[in-house]
Amino acid sequence: MRSLFKLVKSLHPSEKRYVNLKLQSNKSNSLLHSYFETLQNQNEYDFEFIADKYSKTSPKVLKNSLRNLYSNVLKYLRSYNANSHDESVLADMLRDVRILQDKSMFDEAGKLNKRLLKQSSTLEYFYYEKEAIRNKWNLSHLKGELSHDFTDEIEESFSEVIEKELEISKININYRRAVTLYYEYFFYERKEETKQMLIKLADSIKNQGMARLKSAKSMMSSYEILAMGSIIQGDILAHHNVRKDQLKLLLTSEVFEKDYLSQLLVLSNLFTYLKSVKSIKILKDYMQYMKSYFLPLVEKNADGVLTEKYYDIYFQNQVHIQNWYLNNEVINQLLEEFKAVSKKEFKRNTLLLSRVYLSFAQLLILSGDYKQALRHLIEYQSLSLDKKNSTNFVDSELHLLMLYHLMGKQDVFDKGFETIKRKARIEVIAFNDDQNILFDVFHSIYKGEKLGTIDYNGKKSWLKIYIDVLSGISLKEAVKVQFDSSKFLHLPEEKTFMEWLKKI
Known about the structure:
The structure is a single chain. By secondary structure, this protein is mainly alpha-helical. Among the domains are: 2-82, no CATH class; 152-258, no CATH class. It is built from 24 helices and no strands. It has helices spanning 2-10, 13-25, 30-41, 47-53, 59-82, 86-102, 106-123, 126-142, 148-188, 192-208, 216-232, 236-252, 260-276, 280-300, 305-325, 328-342, 350-367, 370-383, 391-406, 410-425, 433-447, 461-470, 475-482, 492-503. α14 runs parallel beside α24. The protein is globular and about 100 Å long. The two termini are 48 Å apart. 29% of the residues are buried.
């Protein structure tokens, strides 16, 4: 029952509390509750351990009980999430309309059905909208109030819904094709043919225009296709503008009113362009807006995916901002925030947690706080032991070497370099092009060779800084060159968009 173990370990704290209470509330479930607690305490699934612990129960009966527990956990999760999903609410309303209709309470059924029709139409749940239209005709039929005009009205309503459904279906076919092409290009092989096919799909959306679309869900999928098209062409400004239009839709359409995760992710996409053009003051404004809008939602839903993504985006971008300012007071404040958050919201997501540790380590090196940087690098590596061949882990190894060099720990540097060299030789790790450049410089230092001019024109600011420092430039000066606030772009149009956001 590895599936049961995975399900139990995936539960957010609030879900875990709810399932615990449900299992405890029924005496017949006392043994299931005990199994549930045992699984919670396991780091790896171990059936033999469970079998030994409950040795009075035969393995066959135990396996059946675990299957039963799996079904119960899923049932309780359905119950826990029932009130938080619009579709569940609509399903309950539809059942209630049918019950009232069967009881010949036609007026009551009609009133509730009117609400069902309005709500399902607004939220674009077309199955429930069609069922509500069907109920409307049936109720009129049962009350003996049918007319040709009324039936024509019903048929027209059906046609409008079916038209929207067909529109979404056609666009989603292209959306699925676009996503497939996107993944093929970026994660498998960068074929020009694949690129052109995706561009063609994006251009067809662009040429037809958004105004023709009747459905907000169609528009959402169309924006995603346009966004992928702009990314594959390397047009970050076009991508930025698409995401702004998409964010407007998410914040103004009732369909997406409660889709906070999509709102957050689309907002965070705007930050890429701002960082690329060094519009850091504007980025600060966006971050302030993000905090004011999403933090109250996060505090109400402290256990969810929304919370994890919010803090991931928040800390990653705040760290980036501080690369430019290196305000020790603000950095320490962020570190305290992160310390508090990592104990709760991030605790179960080691991937996000480790990534933030690495970002902070980079920032602390640049700020000259080597001791704290070392602690954060060690924390990152302890959380990433299963990803020792990843790009980020190799980055952390190189950061450590840089740190030992800056701290004047030559013996530790030499040992660390020998270890990395051995790992590379036996192909435990592999360097990308950027990492190779830095590794070669470290190799020269290890051999005691005098360094000549080292050219690096890549996109990694921290790498450029390290190379400058290793070439003899002071850390403070190297950082100042890379993060020069005089290069900030002000972008008045972004100010205008921010003003609009704050009014929503």
